[in-house]
């Protein structure tokens, strides 16, 4: 990756290495005055065709900054600043774990751990993990929406892990619920009605849950994965699939009406899946069915044998 | 046929974007996106079966769609060029040949058969023993692709549960009873979903056939 021509100045931070670049700016690995690693996003005005979206993005970050630190599922924004003379603004964030060594970062070999990276490495995630991750992000999303903000670009690469905990990141497109720009976001994660609403965020999260639970591309939705057998994991997938469908429906009137509704279903699923009493009852039922089946089969064989013997004895 | 074909959909997203940017001066980007979604699998599949690598096949898809965009108006005006199906088959064949020629520049120089320099009807008339085989493959792929493209379009217009029942029952050929059991629905719902989906797909195939 090419370093930016000029290294931006961020008070109390040393910018170590460029680690990402997007349409609106770049992300730097930085170290603060007490030696902690941080991620710094620089958003440059020159990357916008007009000034208004630049100012809008800055306003979104300003609104998000206090909200971010009040929920564990949102990436913390620690500092925001603006350099109008140089034509950029910046914000300092907590940094994602390194894929190999977590938070013990080595600036030379840092690769941020995102959900996209996990998915790439593992193909698909166990349903239990999907539920926990879904619940964490749905809770964060509900919190964001309650504060009158929407994310507009939820996708696996925008979900990072900090100390192993999933967080909603890349808040560049966060905006007021009242500012509904519809042609924004990422292909396949945008609902048919456009990206500027809380409902659209739910749809995007539904597509993320689809990708991580099936290992399929979002454009394959709603196809189920192959093979699909009768294992406990596959049974869980079928149940989880119902939540995914209710989150990702093309018809928004049939979609979850709020992130809290999605969270409620995820938590109910988690509870029923790990409810020891229910699991014991299911095990007992399965055992009873097996024993019943054996007794029935044995009875049928005995009856047939008895009938055969009777026929043989009564045949002249 | 499977709707979740093993073809690399995700890999094709950059291809589609770069293609659309090359078509920037053409009107109606959405229509070309739609065209790409409908026909890329067909062209790609034929290209692979003709011996191209995945990268070459992707290039062949791009170049074929560019040619269609360039000449579609001419094709619409001149019905002597035959059916859209036959026209697209020829364009595909020539772009595949271009890719093969790129591998062997010397052989390519000896082979004067350049699609750019030859009138389309003339080339279409050239008979080759391989043509019959290609024709057969093309027919099969055309039918399969049209069904898949129609199902893909219908997918977004039906209840997701209906699509899943149809996919498992028809595309993956699971018995209806197994689908019902797996999805926790009754068997009548599986048959109903299958019936509705097939009716919609047939209608969509008819529309696709009439499109050009």
Can you walk me through this structure?
- The complex is a heterodimer of chains A (316) and B (212).
- In chain A, the strands form 3 sheets. Chain A has a 5-stranded antiparallel beta sheet, with helices on one face. Chain A has a two-stranded antiparallel ribbon with strand order 6-9.
- Chain A is elongated.
- Helix content of chain A is 42%, strand content 16%.
- Chain A is built from 7 helices and 9 strands, in the order βββαββααββββαααα.
- The mean pLDDT of chain A is 87.
- With 316 residues, chain A is an alpha+beta fold.
- Chain B is an all-alpha fold.
- Chain B contains 10 helices and no strands.
- Chain B has helices at residues 9-22, 29-49, 54-77, 84-103, 105-110, 120-125, 129-155, 160-171, 176-183, 187-210.
- In chain B, helix 7 (129-155) packs across helix 10.
- The longest helix of chain B is centred in the C-terminal third of the chain and has 27 residues, at 129-155.
- Classes of the chains: A alpha+beta (316), B mainly alpha (212).
- The A-B interface holds A 187, 192, 216-217, 219-224, 226, 228, 230, 238, 241, 245, 248-250 and B 3-4, 9-10, 13, 155-156, 160-161, 163-164, 167-168, 172, 182-184.
